[in-house]
Amino acid sequence: MVSRSTSKGFPGFSAIHVLGDPCLNRPFRAQIDFGEKASAFFRSEEKPLGPVVARWRMGSALPSEVIWCTIAAAQLISAAIVDRFLNNGITGWGTFPVDLLGKGGEHIEGYFGLSVHGRCGPIDKSKSTRILKQMPGGVFPYWKGLYFDPDSWDGSAIFVSETSSLLFVVDTVKRSLEKAKIKNLRFVALDAFERSWD
Length: 198
Hints:
This protein is mostly beta strands. Helices cover 12% and strands 36% of the residues. The strands form 3 sheets. It has a 6-stranded mixed barrel. The chain has a 5-stranded mixed beta sheet with strand order 9-12-13-1-14.
């Protein structure tokens, strides 16, 4: 399943968000068996030949609508989220089949691997602002803001950069997921995003 592409005006970096894992241990977290292919499947560069096996790894025995995996470049989404994205005209994404196994090894129906075909150009690190943050071990440099050439964005509501696997979503996606009361998500606007790597 693949969404349609679209072309829209650039909304600004405060209206685009990194959609991330809030790094909580309580929600159902899965281990997915595609090793070195993780990035290629997530970025819609390759399709698996059949269902990818995902197994409960930690947390609750009951899966959430979005399941984060032990590999960073892997998320599973429920059929309800697929329907929500389709009904709201969300673009830039697709799915691949997964065989999700619960805590007791039981099969759990209604989940798909998320693949992202929306794109923007490379992250321009020179546009980020260097800041100093007080951490428990001392003061360390961080960089604030993730920026790319707005003309390189293909207009998709869900997308990734050519040089990063961070998942970007526009406000429409954020509002849709918040309206659905999905709890295990974290949104950070691109112009407010802080990172320790340069």
